[in-house]
Write a structure and sequence with these properties.
The protein is built from eleven helices and nine strands. It has helices at about 5-15, 15-25, 40-60, 85-100, 120-125, 135-140, 155, 175-180, 195, 205-210, 250-270; strands at about 65, 75-80, 105-110, 130, 145-150, 185-190, 200, 215, 230-235. GO terms for molecular function: acyltransferase activity.
């Protein structure tokens, strides 16, 4: 038995029944080897939730508002991006598992850069995340899955401290997919990610040399974030009619409407904070 096998066995022994039952309840059908058609593994998802739940409950002490706004069935969760290493996405997915009633599994559309990182790429796939290609998202929505998308992409997750909570341009793809698949968009704001992983500089030459989107200089040693208090604010679902093949001039106002709602939720969440870390 390898050291990694031993670590997995120890994790499996520590997983509370509560978390194990949640994953069992939301897991898709798997084959004889324990994987679904996207590479998801129930065992890996349980280990991931065990670790994520600790960060959610004890480290970031996440508070959730409006989670009942997320409708049943297929849908898109669309929010602001931050925190350098996608802690925001992990915490939103964990919220849907721990605080939604009934629990919901979320498949996040992850940046292609993560698929180039050894071990990380396998872990993300086994935990149920999918490379952020339009065709993948469309197939998942047609299967009535709940999908999480950050339209800012790496430009959002790699923001510097001076640009915290400033939304950068959104792509139009998520609105086109929502219209094409008749899926609701639930906007959300993640507050606290900028304080958890503040980045003061981006060493671009080093990032290019390593073939990664950014190389941030932070007050912590990544990937360990600061214990910032985080909150998630869900808005009411938004529906858009159309085929998804409309001209940009017709789609962009819909994109801007979603972006504006997320900005409002960010303002609401930041105004409600009483402490950043304590």
């Amino acid at each position: 038995m390898t050291a990694l096998d031993g670590l997995f066995e120890e994790l499996d022994r520590r997983i509370p029944r509560e978390l194990s039952e949640i994953v069992d309840a939301v897991s898709p059908a798997v084959n004889a080897l324990g994987y679904d058609k996207w590479g998801f593994s129930t065992a890996a998802a349980k280990r991931t939730l065990y670790v994520a739940a600790w960060f959610y409950r004890h480290y970031f002490r996440v508070e959730v508002h409006g989670i009942d706004h997320v409708p049943e069935g297929r849908g898109l969760l669309i929010g602001n991006h931050s925190s350098q290493l996608a802690y925001d996405g992990m915490m939103v997915a964990t919220a849907m598992m721990l605080d939604a009633r009934p629990p919901r599994a979320v498949k996040a559309m992850i940046e292609k850069v993560f698929q180039r990182l050894p071990l990380v790429n396998v872990w993300l796939t086994r935990a149920g995340q999918v490379t952020g290609l339009p065709e993948n998202c469309e197939r998942l929505l047609e299967d009535d899955e709940l999908i999480m998308v950050f339209p800012e992409g790496v430009r959002g997750s790699g923001k510097l401290w001076k640009d915290r909570y400033k939304l950068v341009d959104f792509g139009t793809g998520f609105v086109r997919l929502a219209m094409k698949t008749r899926s609701p968009i639930t906007p959300f704001a993640f507050v606290g990610g900028e304080e958890a992983c503040p980045a003061f500089f981006d060493i671009k030459p080093l990032a290019r040399a390593l073939n990664i989107p950014y190389f941030p200089i932070t007050p912590t040693v990544l990937p360990l974030p600061l214990p910032a208090r985080c909150s998630i604010w869900f808005g009411e679902p938004m529906w858009f009619e159309g085929t998804g093949n409309e001209e940009d001039a017709e789609v962009i106002p819909k994109v801007e409407a979603v972006k504006a709602r997320i900005a409002e939720l960010l303002d609401e969440g930041r105004a409600a904070r009483t402490s950043l870390y304590l």
